[in-house]
Write a structure and sequence with these properties.
There is one protein chain. The chain is α/β, with parallel strands linked by helices. It folds into two domains: 2-215, Rossmann fold (3-Layer(aba) Sandwich); 230-257, no CATH class. Helices cover 28% and strands 25% of the residues. The longest helix has 16 residues, at 37-52.
C-alpha cells in the first residue's frame, strides 16, 4: 500500500509567544517547534498499517517554510520511509497549504490512503484535512477513533457530539483525520533518529504542485495577546478571619458576590 501522512509543524504549547512588528502574526524567532500532537496519531496509524501489509511505504508530507523539514524528520525517525517538503510562505492559510499538499499527492504514482491529524493545535481550525480531500478529489472521514482496512474500502469509527459514535465506510483512496485515542504513538529510537538525519527530503516549490499565493483565502492582521493575569492575593491570619476577609474581598473588591 502507498500510504501518506500530511503533517504540520506548530509551536510547542510551553513556548512564550511574541507578536511580530506589525501584529500581523507571531514572531517565529526563539520558538520551539514540534510535530502537531494529533499528527502523531496519524503517523502511528500509517506505520501500523504498513507493518500489517508487507511492501507498503509511508511518505510524510509537510507544506511550509524551511523549518518544517525538522517535523518531517521527526516522522521519519518514528519509522516513515520518505519525506516531501512543499515550500510555501510562513503566512499561508489553510486553503493554500491544503492545495499545496493535495498537489504533492497528485504527483505521486498511486495513493491508497492519506492520514492527517484532526486539527493542528496552533489555530485549531480543523479544516485542512477536508480541504486536502476536496482539492485531491477523495472522500474524507474526520475525528477517526478506529478503522478496519479492506482491500478497496475502509470502515471508520468516528466521534460525534454528545458522546456518540458514527460508523462510516468509504472506498479507497480516502483521507482519514485522526482523533486522540486512535492509537498510542511510538517514541523514535536513537538509531532511527540518526537514520532520519541522513534520509533525503524531496523539495517541491508551490508552482511544482499547482499552488500559489492566489490560493490564499485569509490574511491575518492585528493579533493581540491576552491581557496579563493579575497577581493573586494571599490572606493571612486564622481560618475564621481569613474566611471573613475573603468574603469581603469578593464582595467589595472583585464584586462577584
Amino acid at each position: 500500500m502507498n500510504l501518506y501522512v500530511c503533517i504540520k509543524q506548530v509551536p510547542d504549547t510551553e513556548t512564550k509567544i511574541k507578536l511580530n512588528a506589525d501584529s500581523s502574526g507571531i514572531d517565529p524567532a526563539g520558538i520551539k517547534w514540534i510535530l502537531s500532537p494529533y499528527d502523531e496519531f496519524a503517523v502511528e496509524e500509517a506505520l501500523r498499517l504498513k507493518e500489517k501489509n508487507a511492501g507498503s511505504t509511508v511518505t510524510v508530507i509537510s507544506a511550509g517554510p524551511t523549518r518544517v523539514v525538522e517535523a518531517i524528520r521527526t516522522a521519519l525517525a518514528m519509522g516513515c520511509d520518505n519525506g516531501i517538503h512543499v515550500e510555501i510562505p510562513e503566512s499561508a492559510d489553510n486553503n493554500f497549504a491544503a492545495k499545496a499538499l493535495a498537489g504533492a499527492l497528485k504527483k505521486e504514482a498511486k495513493v491508497d490512503l492519506v492520514f492527517t491529524g484532526k486539527e493542528a493545535i496552533d489555530d485549531g481550525a480543523a479544516q485542512t484535512s477536508q480541504l486536502i480531500a476536496e482539492h485531491f478529489g477523495m472522500p474524507c472521514v474526520t475525528v477517526v477513533l478506529g478503522a478496519e482496512y479492506g482491500a478497496t474500502s475502509v470502515k471508520c469509527k468516528r466521534e460525534v457530539e454528545g458522546g456518540a459514535f458514527e460508523m462510516v465506510e468509504t472506498a479507497l483512496p480516502a483521507l482519514l483525520a485522526a482523533q486522540k485515542g486512535l492509537n498510542e504513538p511510538r517514541y523514535a529510537s536513537l538509531p532511527n533518529i540518526m537514520k532520519a538525519k541522513k534520509k533525503e527530503v524531496k523539495l517541491l516549490k508551490a508552482a511544482d504542485v499547482g499552488a500559489s499565493e492566489a490560493d490564499q483565502k485569509i490574511k491575518y492582521k492585528n493579533f493581540q495577546l491576552p491581557p496579563p493575569k493579575q497577581a493573586g492575593k494571599k490572606i493571612a491570619g486564622e481560618p475564621a478571619a481569613q474566611a471573613k476577609e475573603l468574603v469581603r474581598a469578593l464582595h467589595e473588591e472583585a464584586k462577584v458576590v
